[in-house]
Amino acid sequence: MKIRYLLISLISISLMNFSCKNNKNDVVEKGVSFALNEYRKKTLDSIQYSIELTIPEKKAEKIQGLQTVSFNLNALDSALILDFSNDANHVLSVKSGDRVVDYEFINEHIVINPDQLVKGENRISIAFIAGDLSLNRNEEYLYTLFVPDRASTCFPLFDQPNLKASYQLTLKTPKNWEAVSNGTLKEKAASGDTSIYHFEKTKPISSYLFAFAAGKFFKASKTIGSREMTMYYRETDSTKVNRNSDEVFSLHAKAVSWLEDYTAIKYPFGKFDFVLLPSFQYGGMEHPGSIFYNESALFLDENPPVNKQLARASVIAHESAHMWFGDLVTMDWFNDVWLKEVFANFMAAKIVHPSFPEINHKLRFILAHYPGAYEVDRSAGTNPILQQLGNLKNAGTLYGGIIYQKAPIVMRQLEKKIGGEMMRESLREYLKTYSFGNARWDDLIGIIDKRSPLDIADWSNVWVKTPGMPEYELIGEKEEIEIRQKKDSVSDRIWQQPAVIFWKEKFAQGSLKLNLSNQLQSVREPDFPAMIFPNSDGEAYGYFKMDSVSEDHFFLHYSTRKDTTFENPVFRGSMLVNIWEGFLRGDGAKSDRYLAYLLDVLQRENNALISDYLLGNIQTIWWTFLTDQQRKQNQENTEKILWGLLENTTDKGMKNSYFRAFRNVTMTESGLRKLEVLWNDQLKVKDLILSEDDKISLAYELALKGHVDAKGVLAKQLSNTKNPDRKAKMEFVIPAISQDEKERDQFFESLKKEENREHEAWVLEALSYLHHPLRAKSALKYLRPSLDILQEVQLTGDIFFPQRWLHNTFSGHSEKEAADIANGFLREKTDYPYYLKNKILQSTDMLDRAVKLKN
């Protein structure tokens, strides 16, 4: 209570200071501080924006804007501050009502003194030049991406999530362009070479959810039930579009119908459109009435692996769930951004089940969430699910594996703890109470605590508000085997959770369920030395150390049909995840032996989800944990196994997975020859259908791995590529693959300029080749400069870009020289922002482990 009282006092003092000194540079800081957020929340309401933008056909020309913002102001004790993250000369005029007013432009804010305003209803009109940072402009189209605080880079507004507003948009575009936004199209008119789109006023939404796209798009509409949906897209391959369109519409309709039933609230935002964008930065973005997607995530190639099909269904369900969780009810401050993401992921897992009755969804949940969550939580840069945030400009750094992978695991634990029915009723109350408003995690916990006799707040404090993962140790051998939580880094912290443990002896086997704690609990008093398989159902979260005898037994009996436990794919998947954790911590087999284990069981595995997981780990071991000599010793055998699986599998989806793994690791002359004849269509493998993207990747691999005519291969593929968006991406990436080191150096230097990082997906693909393990030594010189500009990358890039910039920079490196550069940077930068320091530690964790395991 003392801490809470102190926090309230500090906020009150901060707000008093803000009110007294609002025109000072040291108070009106860049971004939206928590104090500014709280003050505006207290003094502003009934906000409406009317925005008009004139979009020229040429990308280089500026977009002119005119907007009116009306609002109710209930206090005149402070200046009005509108956020506009641009240069002062982008503001052309400011009026209050019909009167031109004086204003100051301070740290990317338009500051209007109280004497220019009235208590009650105000109307401010601003003529401006729109900023380009969040407009994602291309030669033939553009689209906005305003999350988390990027709306203010385009136009002036109150850019914080708890000031919901209605938006009325008018777009003036080149005549042959389509346009789409959150609101229903009210009218389309023509004026010379210009089309004018007038959109209806939206329901109240947060600023990061306002969106529009305009350009040369195809579109298709479909009505399912009583709901009409329109899809906008750029893909020029009509066969691919026709193959996917019905399923894309169907998955949306099923998701929305399921959510209406679960929440007891009809879809809240009227019209339902979605836009498919090439190289979109995310899988999707949940703008109400106008969801944006990465086009390749929805338009799948022929014979897609089951994981690709599941991923498509999941991203559609995820974005659809956001219409309720995130859009209808939005977090109050971005430190609770995880709340909207966890419910979207949590609901998506439920929604996709009926569409894939043949899939083991429990296994799919384990493999989709646990490895990604552990990847962050095992690192020194881990963070709690609920993080602190002092300024909205840093909100993008909150995103990552903890929000998207760990949080759904924790939410599933909560549902099991309180029961599915109580969870559903609590969420219905939560949505009804805060509809078209804002809420915090603690608001939901309060609703649940009223219904449940359990202390949910205490459980939440450990799982949601502290970082890291528990570790469990098995103690004893012959007389008694016991388990307990290892001493935690946080004093007296106990991770409340049950776990199932399977044990096996020579003539007996069984399992038991324990509520884990830091006290020793008996697992088994064996008649013979027992093998123990902890967390055998995969539901508990943490690291369960296994002994070498149990691990060897698992691999030896992997595919036995005499043992129903080993026949269970959930058991196999859970143990593989657990053993991988042990390997990374140095508790398992050595790298080359572990590779042999995985290649062996890959040939015996018949579950596509597990096979894809195995292929991922095999490729990670191959490039990150094997020495050059070990790769040479295993090269022919590994290629033989992967090619054999590619040729012989009857699973058309897995054929593509085996092909991509083979393409990734092959280095022998015969293997590269296979890639070449596949690329130039001299070789056909039954049921292996290569898309234009596959052909591009084959050309890249041939050039990277020393094809004698690398330039010719790339030039021919560029000529053969029909889709204009893929062609433009190729032209960008090719210099990063060049066999000329000076050309690669020049390409890296170009990335130091913000305008050359505009297409983030292009940059990330180029980085993966620039830092490929085969080029790692020559790429060492790029590491320190990449770290030096990280803060700029964070401020100018979208939310996932800083982490992906780091990942694609360091993932190809596994030697001590690279680790020394990263660690030296962190030692030198003692006052470096902690949120970026954590991203570096997360991205270099695998590198540090590789250095230790190789030595």
From TrEMBL:
<dbReference type="InterPro" id="IPR045357">
    <property type="entry name" value="Aminopeptidase_N-like_N"/>
</dbReference>
<comment type="similarity">
    <text>Belongs to the peptidase M1 family.</text>
</comment>
<dbReference type="InterPro" id="IPR014782">
    <property type="entry name" value="Peptidase_M1_dom"/>
</dbReference>
<keyword id="KW-0378">Hydrolase</keyword>
<dbReference type="Pfam" id="PF01433">
    <property type="entry name" value="Peptidase_M1"/>
</dbReference>
<keyword id="KW-0479">Metal-binding</keyword>
<dbReference type="GO" id="GO:0005615">
    <property type="term" value="C:extracellular space"/>
</dbReference>
<keyword id="KW-0482">Metalloprotease</keyword>
<dbReference type="GO" id="GO:0005737">
    <property type="term" value="C:cytoplasm"/>
</dbReference>
<feature type="domain" description="Peptidase M1 membrane alanine aminopeptidase">
    <location>
        <begin position="252"/>
        <end position="463"/>
    </location>
</feature>
<dbReference type="GO" id="GO:0042277">
    <property type="term" value="F:peptide binding"/>
</dbReference>
<dbReference type="Pfam" id="PF17900">
    <property type="entry name" value="Peptidase_M1_N"/>
</dbReference>
<dbReference type="InterPro" id="IPR027268">
    <property type="entry name" value="Peptidase_M4/M1_CTD_sf"/>
</dbReference>
<keyword id="KW-0645">Protease</keyword>
<dbReference type="GO" id="GO:0070006">
    <property type="term" value="F:metalloaminopeptidase activity"/>
</dbReference>
<keyword id="KW-0031">Aminopeptidase</keyword>
<dbReference type="InterPro" id="IPR050344">
    <property type="entry name" value="Peptidase_M1_aminopeptidases"/>
</dbReference>
<dbReference type="InterPro" id="IPR001930">
    <property type="entry name" value="Peptidase_M1"/>
</dbReference>
<protein>
    <recommendedName>
        <fullName>Aminopeptidase N</fullName>
        <ecNumber>3.4.11.2</ecNumber>
    </recommendedName>
</protein>
<dbReference type="GO" id="GO:0016020">
    <property type="term" value="C:membrane"/>
</dbReference>
<dbReference type="GO" id="GO:0008270">
    <property type="term" value="F:zinc ion binding"/>
</dbReference>
<dbReference type="GO" id="GO:0006508">
    <property type="term" value="P:proteolysis"/>
</dbReference>
<keyword id="KW-0862">Zinc</keyword>
<feature type="domain" description="Aminopeptidase N-like N-terminal">
    <location>
        <begin position="48"/>
        <end position="209"/>
    </location>
</feature>
<dbReference type="GO" id="GO:0016285">
    <property type="term" value="F:alanyl aminopeptidase activity"/>
</dbReference>
<dbReference type="InterPro" id="IPR042097">
    <property type="entry name" value="Aminopeptidase_N-like_N_sf"/>
</dbReference>
<dbReference type="GO" id="GO:0043171">
    <property type="term" value="P:peptide catabolic process"/>
</dbReference>
